[in-house]
Every structure is written in C-alpha cells, then in structure tokens.
Amino acid sequence: xxxxxxxxxxxxxxxxxxxxxxxxxxxxxxxxxxxxxxxxxxxxxxxxxxxxxxxxxxxxxxxxxxxxxxxxxxxxxxxxxxxxxxxxxxxxxxxxxxxxxxxxxxxxx
Length: 109
Description:
The chain is of the alpha/beta class. The protein is built from four helices and six strands, in the order βαβαβαβαββ. It has a single domain (4-102), classed as Rossmann fold (3-Layer(aba) Sandwich). It is 30% helix and 22% strand. α2 links the parallel β2 (27-32) and β3 (47-50).
C-alpha cells in the first residue's frame, strides 16, 4: 500500500498530482530548487525539501528515502522522460531504491 509519495516535478503538474494524492488519503512530499522556493506547489504538499535540480536522480531518491516515501511520481517531463530514472521499460511499479516504487503512466490530476 502506498502511503507517502514524492512528487518529482514542480508547478501546476506538482499541484495536480498533490491534490489527487491527498484526495486518495496519501501523504505528499515535494521538492524545490532555490529559484522555486516560494512557488505555490511548495506549500500544497505535506512536506517539501530543497534539491539542487529536478534532474538529479540520486539526490531525489535520497530525499524520498529520507522522507520515508513508498513511491515517487515523476510528473510530466523532467524525470518521466529519463530512461535511467524510469527504469528501462517504464513499467508502473519499477523499484528505484529498496522499497520505493516508481509510479509511472498514471494519469492523475
């Protein structure tokens, strides 16, 4: 069961994913860069963590682990189009790190 999801995106995409997850009773974790720290999506999520960039896979997975996430939703663009992050065949449920699943292909929001 997924209880907490890191949203690896920003802006309107992050807001839509966060709203949908909250409607499902799932806790949300956001990431933001220095330039985005005052954007609305940072305040919509239950927890938000600073990152150096939205394409830094190792850092994003590290934040997901530290925050206790069960899954990562890549959103649109950024990491969702990166084969290294998406896990080859882009199958929903690909595991990124131990028990953190990648939610891929879900049209949420």
